[in-house]
Amino acid sequence: MPWPVAFGDRLGYPHVNMTDTVLLAVDGPRATITLNDPAKHNRLDPAGLTLLRQAVDRVDADPAVRVTVITGAGDKTFCSGYDLGSISSGERQERAYDEDGFEKVMDRIEAMRMPTLCALNGGVYGGATDLALACDFRLGVRGMRFFMPAARFGLHYYPSGLRRYTQKVSPSFAKRAFLLSEDFSDSELLAAGYLDWLVDRAEFAAKVEEKAAKLATLAPLSMAGMKRAIEQFAQAAPDEPSIRRSAQTCAASDDLREGLAAMRERRAPAFKGR
User: What HEC string does 121-168 produce?
Assistant: First the structure.
């Protein structure tokens, strides 16, 4: 998809085509980033993560953009998370913390200067549940589902994702999602505080437009400052090096290899705790 002319002119970027798995449109003060691979439930592979980060960087560098909406194509799934095939191919440690690693891209979205709205057009699974939490607001559609399968195959989630779950929803919700690997319905997500709004599909586009338009009209300097202040006040001070060591131990564990193999072979895993 070509960059809109106004966007390219404003930032001095050449008008190049972007792979259609991530789309970017800029309309006045609003940018919309769309995950566009509905046949694969809009999942993110390493190339898609790079494109997502590039889109975020370009939008964040444009002073005329005052709100960013992140959504998915289709009406079934917002995003099914990270491509698990990439985890099993040995990326779990090598790419985990580099510039285009999943954690870094989610942290980059969270750090955007303007308010961000995640428009959840369908189900949200795996790492995409944290992508939504990296945004400031979440608008869901009735009928959507949620699950975080990390414990189902032995993956220890990265620290900033665990922080967002605990900080932006609650420790109880984080434990139900990660330790019990519960599935959540749309109404449960609203009651838990994961969603800010839940609407019928017929109302979804109009509600996205309403919220984005409101955010685009408010004073950008004060909003950027208050956004940073709110995030800082909400921060805790965990032993992050210890959490990373635990995550790395799990990344190299027999349990993770067994969990991924069981998933591929469609069988129950036999975890050994090592």
Answer: CCEEECCHHHHHHHCCEEEEECCCEEECCHHHHCCCCCHHHHHHHHHH
